[in-house]
Amino acid sequence: MKLLPGVVAVCLGVGTFGVPVAPAVAHGGGLNAQGCHNNRKTGDYHCHRGGGGGSALSSSSGRKRSYGLSSSGGAFPNCAAARAAGAAPVREGQPGYSRRLDRDGDGVGCE
C-alpha cells in the first residue's frame, strides 16, 4: 500500500493548480489626508479609507464632491501640494483650483 500516499499527493497537487485565483489589482496611491484621490483616467474622485467628508454625487451630472478644503481660500499653494494631496490635475470649479495653478489658462491646473 505504498502507492496510496503517492496517489493522494498527486491528486492534491493537481487539485491545487486547478483552483482559480483572482488577480490582486492595486493603484499607485497618492492619497490625500482624507484618504481620497482623483482617478486621472475618468476624472472621478474617490476615497479608500472612508474619508472625504463630502457625499459623492453622480458623475453623470458633472458635479464634483467635496475635497475637504475650506470654501474660503481653499486653493492649493502650488502644484507640488496638489500632487502630494493626490488632487492634481485640479479643474476649474473644483475646490483647490486657482488660476495661478493653471499656466495655460485652459481650466485645468497642475497638468
TrEMBL record:
Annotated signal sequence range: none
Record field: compositional bias (Basic and acidic residues): 99-111
Domain Excalibur calcium-binding: 75-111
Disordered: annotated segments: 47-71, 86-111
Biased composition (Low complexity): 56-71
Source taxon at top rank: Bacteria
NCBIfam families named among the record's database cross-references: YHYH_alt
Name used for this protein in its record: Excalibur calcium-binding domain-containing protein
Organism: Sphingomonas rhizophila
